[in-house]
Amino acid sequence: MRKTTHIGFMLIALVSLMFTACTPDEEVEAxxxxxxxxxxxxxxxxxxxxxxxxxVNVPYGTDLSNVVGTVTATEGATVTPSIASGIDFSDLSVDxxxxxxxxxxxxxxxxxVGENPLRIxxxxxxxxxxxxxxxxxxVAYQWALDTYSEKAMYVSFSDLPDADLETVTxxxxxxxxxxxxxxxxxxxIATGNALVNITDFYKDGGNLLLTSLxxxxxxxxxxxxxxxxxxxxxxxxxxxxxxxxNWGLSYTDVADEDDYPDGNDTHYLFEGLNTSEVTFEGxxxxxxxxxxxxAKKNRAHLWDFNRFFPELPDGATDPNARKSAWEDATxxxxxxxxxxxxxLNGVELGAxxxxxxSGDYSGTSIVITAGAYEWNMEDDRxxxxxxxxxxxxxxxxxxxxxxx
Length: 404
Known about the structure:
Distance between the termini: 93 Å
Strand content: 25-35%
CATH architecture of the largest domain: 3-Layer(aba) Sandwich
Number of helices: 8
Largest sheet: 10 strands, mixed
């Protein structure tokens, strides 16, 4: 009985050994199980074993010329090329070979680059932000770069023809010079090839924010005829004035229900701003101050509606008839004036104006050209109303980004 049992065990062991010796080679695996980028960015690859692909997402602008990472595969397998030594992924895909004995598999590693986040171009006449002539512009644009990060970029007019504007929705030009030359003229660099690019951008639905002395650029762009362009109210040769008053904007109906468009007080431009109660000529209303007492550059090219229509149009008696006639002629809406203006005789001055899409121009432009709108105080004081300057600008940029 014992001999039989012993022989049985031997037979079982022999059969087991035969099956083990005959295990086919195709059961040996050569699988790529994980892949990571560690330089210049950290990213995790998603392995699809069915399609033998690995997908890696990286941010826009990543330098893919020398990607370093790590890779793992089934035990005993080797992977080539070596990502630990750096691989050029500039063509966005590289084949990796996994070898385990006589078994070989090929995996295609595909890099997906994220969307360009650029939305805002900050325009200037210097090659770089640091080379701008005026601290006023530098402070404004640095705030935008700090606020919007990779969504914003400074671009010189000279570089604009070669710039990638595919994802840009807003161009902002904060233009100021002091003392202002006479006669007034834009820099040649802003009226050359760059003007063609900006005009095309505007016509194709791109939006513009034009602040301070940039308001009359709409005439250069062809959106306005010269007869309806803004009036130069700052004084040539003057760097700044000293004034003890708060300066700001009126944006709600004051003396007449037609001072501003319906719902203007809830327009996105004025959301979240600090308002102050003002009493002028017997009227009390909310205003938005932008500058406190002290030195003011007073750089403003705004619209004086009395200049366009010395007499009320068609015998109208409405004090806002001049403004309304100008709005109709220009497809524009006056969003704000000086804080004291509507109490006098309706809205006579256009300090913040929204130019609607019109004719060949599919984009929208917002102009903020009140003398109170400035970023850098010439007497080095801290402006009490700086948050309103930043707030109305951020509201304008956000609203224009969303409207394209």
